[in-house]
Amino acid sequence: MKFNITTHPLCYLIEIEGRIDSYTAPKIEPVLNDLFNKEPMNIVIDLEKTIYLSSSGILLFVKAQERCINIGKGKIIFCSVPKFIYYSFSLSGFDKLFTFCKNHTIAMQSL
Amino acid sequence: MKSRTFPGNFRSLEPISDFVIQKAQQLGFSPQEIYAIQTAVDEACSNIIDHAYEGENKGDIQIKVIELDNGLKVTLHDFGKPFDPGDIDEPDLISPLEMRKERGLGIFFIRQLMDKVIFKFTPSNGNELTLIKYKRD
Question: The CATH number of the domain where A104 resides is what?
């Protein structure tokens, strides 16, 4: 798993490539925590090159979104989500918790 | 039948997925079915490491992939403590976020994505979890 972070006026964009599973999800968690300690607190997560997302990956993002809800600031938006990965979100019901956009340009415009 | 043994750690999850995906592709499963099989096996192996072995590198996971007439049978074998996925409660997918417990989502995926899930434990043979997926597309 590899990821790339770029800074934009209203958000950070994280592009994640490869698998997000019980081995790699713990490597993303401190990165998200670090970004939430900075301004702006919005994070766009681009999953175009993500090939697999496990329940541990979903729960990692749920926890981050929960943190945003609790402090009433910031949000996570997903973009370019492959259909099988989106299916995992919808199967678990967590699709209702996040905003999904077609690509990161649209995601950033929605902020 | 193909069989391989992997160290019981999270680093093994990717090669385990590759092993199962390759066999499912050979049998002509659709990409959606292959993703479902991959997810179920990945979640099951994560549970073996977390719950049966209670940590990484405590033992191995043996995986057998067997072709059926119209499907695939994956058997996962470990020698950790007895762990029946059927004992885990369904995850709460309805309550407000702050009231939900985080456990059970992996098992929920396994049950939703596979056609049959069979667990067997014997003291001499350890845990054996059988996952069956039939071809539909």
Answer: 3.30.750.24
State the smallest CA–CA distance between residue A55 and chain B in angstroms.
6
pTM (predicted TM-score): 0.93
Range of the domain at A57: 2-109
Judged by DSSP in three states, B53 sits in coil
Structure tokens at B121: 């434990």
Helix or strand holding residue B21 (H, E)? helix B13-26
Q: Do B105 and A92 touch (CB under 8 A)?
A: yes
Distance CA B135, CA B132 (A): 10
Contact assignment for B108 to A58 by CB distance below 8 Å = no
| C-alpha B39: how far from chain center | 8
Our count of domains for chain A comes to 1
What CATH architecture is B2-134? 2-Layer Sandwich (3.30)
CA distance A54 to chain B (A): 7
ipTM of the prediction: 0.93
- pLDDT tens per residue, chain B (137 residues)? 889 999 999 999 999 999 999 999 999 999 999 999 999 999 999 999 999 999 999 999 999 999 999 999 999 999 999 887 777 777 776 666 555 656 688 999 999 999 999 999 988 889 999 999 999 85
Q: Which amino acid is at A85?
A: I
Q: Work out how many CB contacts closer than 8 A connect A with B.
A: 66
- Return the domain boundaries, chain B: 2-134
